[in-house]
Amino acid sequence: MEAYEDKVFHEMCLWKARIQRTPAGGSRLAKSLQNKINAFIPEKVHWLITLTIEKMVKAVLFGSMYTIGAKKKERSLQLKEAYVKRTARHYKNAATLEGVITGAGGILMGFADFPAFLAIKLKMLFEIATIYGYDVKDYKERLFILYVFKIAFSSQPKRQEIVKKLENWEKYSQTLPEEVANFDWKDFQLEYRDYLDLAKMAQLLPIIGAAVGAVANNKLTHQLLLNAMNCYRLRYFSPIKQLSP
Question: PANTHER family, per this entry (predicted)?
Fold first, then answer.
């Protein structure tokens, strides 16, 4: 492989190794506490939250495919990732500004941050997929985007499950349901909501909410970018090399 590919292959292996580590005690404790809280929430409330997230994500998924251009022509991996990073800067700036506006508005505007920030992140993933050369009109490519989203915003054990699926995506995708309605939306919303609860709760506080919203949104968007790049690197390198843990 060329020098750039050697470099990013190494970065990908380090990313994968971090995912495969045993979760730290603090993160296991936080997840255990969140699971106990979830157990006290009535099932009807979970159902309502799940339905809301499902509708929001579907609207973005099926709406974005009509606003993103066709998949890009074949390019080198280095050129693709240069375009990915340039494109992501636009979304990071939009997410930061959105965090400032909603964070400054207190609790009510803080809740409005949820769908707005979700839309920004998913739209960014659509553009990243097309830059890497994938057709986002393909139903299974949209599911791949959801798995990328999950691996960025899930607990460590869940990330370990997902990375195994993504590194064997071509084979795994053959086992996926043919309808997006059969996707596990409850698991998706619980992992996403629990992860962001820890990162963004302070955004709802007065005075400091704008600063917290800006920093949290910028950091989380960058985190999504890094995970997305490594997920697509998994697909790029899987036919070339046997991935090391």
Answer: PROTEIN ECSC
